[in-house]
Amino acid sequence: MEISFAKRGEWTVVTVQGRIDTISAPDFEKSMREQMTQGSNRFLVDLAKCDYISSAGLRCILAAGKNAKASGGELACCGLSGMVKQVFDISGFRSLLRIFDSPDDAAKE
User: Fold this and answer.
1) For position 107, what pLDDT does the model report?
2) 52 lies in which domain range?
3) For position 59, which CATH number holds?
4) Which helix (H) or strand (E) element contains residue 88?
5) Cα separations (Å) of 103 from 21, 22, 45?
6) How far is CA 54 from CA 9, 30, 108, in A?
7) Number of domains the chain is built from
8) Residue 38 has what DSSP assignment?
9) The pTM is what?
10) What is the DSSP letter of 109?
11) DSSP-based three-state secondary structure for 98
12) How many whole angstroms separate alpha carbon 77 and alpha carbon 69?
């Protein structure tokens, strides 16, 4: 898994490439905590290049969302497709988080 961060308006766009699974989820959590300690609290997780997410990946996204909300921010996702979209649909995560089609759509808000 590769993670990159970029500012886009009020959002910190978190681009994830590869898999978020039991092995990589702790790295995702650590990276998100580091961003929060640097003052970011509004995150858009771009999953367009993520080809797999496990329950551990869902848990770390939910934890990051709760931490962002606790600091007055939020976490949303975009770029869902294929298996990742199916997992979000089946798990009910689409009702827990705001979902955008792309970073451009989120930037309009």
Assistant:
1) 87
2) 2-107
3) 3.30.750.24
4) helix 82-91
5) 23, 26, 9
6) 30, 17, 30
7) 1
8) T
9) 0.95
10) -
11) strand
12) 14
Single-letter code of the amino acid located at 26? P
Identify the H or E element spanning 100: strand 98-100
CA gap 12, 5 in Å, rounded:
6
Q: Which of 72, 20, 17, 78 is nearest to 45 (CA)?
A: 78
Say which amino acid occupies 84: V
- What is the per-residue DSSP string for 71-83? TT-EEEEE---HH
How many other C-beta atoms can be found within 10 angstroms of the C-beta atom of residue 59? 14
Instruction: Provide the percentage of residues in the chain whose pLDDT is more than 70.
Output: 100
Give the separation between CA 108 and CA 103, rounded to whole angstroms.
Answer: 9
Residue 13 CA to residue 107 CA, distance in Å, equals 10
pLDDT for position 66: 96
In 10 A of CB 40, how many CB atoms?
Answer: 19
CA–CA separation, 44 vs 75, rounded Å? 6
d(CA 28, CA 25): 5
Question: Is the alpha carbon torsion for 20, 18, 64, 79 positive or negative?
Answer: negative
- SS3 of 14, please? strand
